[in-house]
Amino acid sequence: MTDANPSSQPNSLETIDPLPLSSVTDLATAIHSNVTQVIVGHEAEVEHVVTALLARGHILLDDVPGVGKTMLARSIARSIDCSFQRVQFTPDLLPSDITGVNVFNQKTREFEFQSGPVFANIVLGDEINRAPPKTQSALLEAMEEQQVTVDGETRPLPDPFVVIATQNAIEPNRTYDLPFAEVDRFMKKLSLGYPTPAEESEMLGRTVGHHPIERLESVTDLESVIRAREAVANIAVEPPVRTYASNLAHYTREHAKIGASPRGSIALLRAAQARAALDNREYVIPDDIQHEAPHVLSHRIKTSSSRDDDGGTVVADALERVRVP
Q1: CA atoms lying within 13 Å on the CB side of residue 128
Q2: pLDDT truncated to tens, each residue of the chain (325 aa)?
Q3: Inter-axis angle of helices 239-254 and 310-321, to 10 degrees?
Q4: What is the pTM of this model?
Q5: Which residues fall within 8 angstroms of residue 4, CB to CB, at 6 or more apart?
Q6: DSSP, residue by residue, 69-126
Q7: What is the pLDDT of residue 4?
Q8: For residue 164, which of 74, 80, 59 has the smallest C-alpha distance?
């Protein structure tokens, strides 16, 4: 993996030549197959991470410790020849430990910017809810605008830029709730769950001796990922499908204290475009929307209840009640 270079960024106005759609499907399949050499029994979740990557989204992995959240993020990063940084979130972590800081150079008598770990293509925020909200908020600008502002100067982040964060709520007295504005910036929230006995046996067999991630090699490069993302962005979303996504979001707003935001609607359509690409299809269909909605919208919904799964219930009701065009 190459080192991130904050001073060397692609021109945002540069025309990107999209990959042929069949090549996008092949790229997604290659990443998925590579990751499943390490991750056993979570093929659907791996696929969701791949679609979020192609759809220019960030991923929040929420589950109990030890089920492979961090290993999944590392496997995705290793599958792409890109820069990767891991941030271990702790209560004493400062925002500058993530974004970087200006340091005075005694020789030049000037301040020089030392970039933080956020200047990487894939950033793993491990146990993100162990840091206080002030530190977590250091990612808000980065995740939404792909840039970081330090001491009044704004610096672009590498392209692509993806945050994969993990969290668990097993020790509530030692963790912090993520700010809702930050949760809303994650395209998808996923849970892995425990493996079945057969899956766990297979995993144990693979990890005896050397861990398979130590042998994992990249199957694609940054240029291919950027071109694949452009191809996904060009997949057609016709007005009836857009209306369907909008009606689903509107239903959640009518049946919850806080419903899915317009950012959520955009994320839903982008995820659906990536889902269509996996099927080698040049247009989005309602099935793509229905497949992605539970993972894209549920975490953006707050009901009057404190139960975490209530958002999923509202989305399930929306999918059942909102008419499909």
Answers
A1: 30
A2: 444 444 444 444 468 899 999 999 999 999 999 999 998 888 999 999 999 999 999 999 998 888 888 899 999 999 999 999 999 999 999 999 999 988 888 888 788 888 999 999 999 999 999 998 888 888 999 999 999 988 888 999 999 999 999 988 677 667 888 888 899 999 999 998 888 899 888 888 888 777 888 889 999 999 999 999 999 999 999 999 999 999 999 999 999 999 999 999 999 999 999 999 999 999 999 999 999 999 999 999 988 765 556 789 999 999 999 999 8
A3: 130
A4: 0.89
A5: 83, 85, 115, 119, 120, 121, 158
A6: HHHHHHHHHHHEES-EEEEE--TT--THHHHEEEEEETTTTEEEEEE-TTSSSEEEEE
A7: 43
A8: 59
Question: What is the per-residue DSSP string for 182-246?
Answer: HHTT-SEEE---PPPHHHHHHHHHHHSSS-GGGG---SEEHHHHHHHHHHHHTSB--HHHHHHHH
Cβ burial of 86 (10 Å; 0-12, 13-18, 19+) is middle
The CA distance from 268 to 13, in Å, is 25
Q: Is the distance from CB of 90 to CB of 41 less than 8 angstroms? A: no
Report pLDDT for 11: 46
Alpha-carbon span 86 to 123, nearest angstrom: 6
Q: Where in the chain is the domain with CATH 1.10.8.80?
A: 235-325
* φ, ψ for residue 2, nearest 5 deg: -90, 160
Q: Which residue has the tokens 């929420």?
A: 62
* Residue 283 near residue 276 (C-beta atoms within 8 A): yes
Domain boundaries for CATH 3.40.50.300 within the chain: 1-234
Q: Which CATH superfamily is domain 235-325 in?
A: Magnesium chelatase subunit I, C-Terminal domain (1.10.8.80)
Euclidean distance between the first and the last CA atom of the chain, given in angstroms as a whole number:
45
Cα separation, 119 vs 150, whole angstroms: 13
Topology given in CATH for the domain delimited by 1-234: Rossmann fold (3.40.50)
